[in-house]
Amino acid sequence: MKKILITGGAGYIGSHTAVELWKAGMEPIILDDLSNSDPTVLDRLEEITGKRFAFYQGDCNKKSLLKSIAEKYKIEGLIHFAAFKAVGESTQQPLKYYRNNVGSLLVLLKFMEEKGIKDLVFSSSCTVYGQPEVLPVTESTPRQEAESPYGNTKKICEDILVDCVKSKMGIRVISLRYFNPVGAHPSAKIGELPLGTPNNLVPFITQVAAGIREKLTVFGDDYDTVDGSCVRDYIHVVDLAEAHVKALAYLNKQENNFYDVFNVGTGNGNSVLEVIHAFEKVSGVKLDYQVGPRRPGDVVKTWADTTKINNVLGWKAKYSLEDSMRDSWNWQKSLD
Ligand code: NAD
Ligand code: WQD
Known about the structure:
With about 325 residues, this protein is of the alpha/beta class. About 40% of the residues lie in helices and about 20% in strands. The strands form four sheets. The protein has a seven-stranded parallel sheet, sandwiched between helices. UDP-4-deoxy-4-formamido-beta-L-arabinopyranose binds next to helix 7 and strand 8. Its cofactor is NAD(+).
């Protein structure tokens, strides 16, 4: 069975990807320092798949740890999820973000070179596009100056990958630019575990519905959008996880020194109010929300053109917004 090392594999997207890799006949080897995740996820993954995945608790910036994993397992591919992702915090502590997000990629690339590991899937983000002038966003939409150090780490990492491929070090790489990941595993055994007050919309919604937070504030309803609130492309995390499986399969068929980038979204934009109403519909819970001021720096509207990933990787989102809200809600309820 092909062994795939997943850094950040105990996290939100990584844990769902571990399940999809296993379903596709690959064995995930998880490396995570648990800085933003919980060790019980390993038990949950076992409940879902029936398999206890190999797990290393540690920092993927540590080359000695990577080497010891490679001594035990023949690693045939790598998915690099591990990163810090709090946009606001990154503006206060930029070095923390550059060190972890950019530094870890450098260490991993050196490790790949030394061990002859060819295939890498990298977690990038729609944040690299900022507010695009033309919608939907294609992969050739120009990237913009980053709004935050976090966003900049994604741009820098993409550039590092391009340069390494150009240098003919032999690797094959896909950067996946995720739009807004939401939802949870339909089993409600794994999902997003935000530490403290959630920064993102959907965990905030589910926590308000569960009575953990008092009220949701909609950040502005006077934008030039369908109903005045901001628009995003919300992609179910299981669909997103599957895109990594497709990406690895595609990389495997490429020549050495390959790089490409794909948007991962549904292709549809939904407003904040539409998300709230979809949640209310599937949960039967009336959300206490108010409209507040705009959030500084917010992108007004963005959604993906998914033609490239649909045609080249043969991947298409299957879950609807309502499916995502149902699964997020079931996950939230399971935490009580
Ligand atoms: P997450 O925080 O749930 O998962 C990241 C995991 O990496 C965590 O389990 C954390 O403990 C671990 N980690 C962090 N630094 C580490 C290190 N040095 N060594 C080992 N483990 C480390 O986040 P997520 O939402 O699953 O995001 C995964 C990736 O996708 C990140 O690179 C993130 O930037 C990117 N991304 C996320 C979103 C989103 O909205 N969730 C959107 C676009 C891109
Ligand atoms: C979604 C919408 C808010 C909370 C973030 C990161 C970005 C990328 C994706 C990683 C916006 C509105 C939110 C609330 C609200 N991540 N909102 N009330 O802004 O697309 O981006 O996640 O790469 O880098 O910045 O996601 O979930 O924060 O917000 O009205 O309490 O919900 O204004 O329109 P966003 P989000």
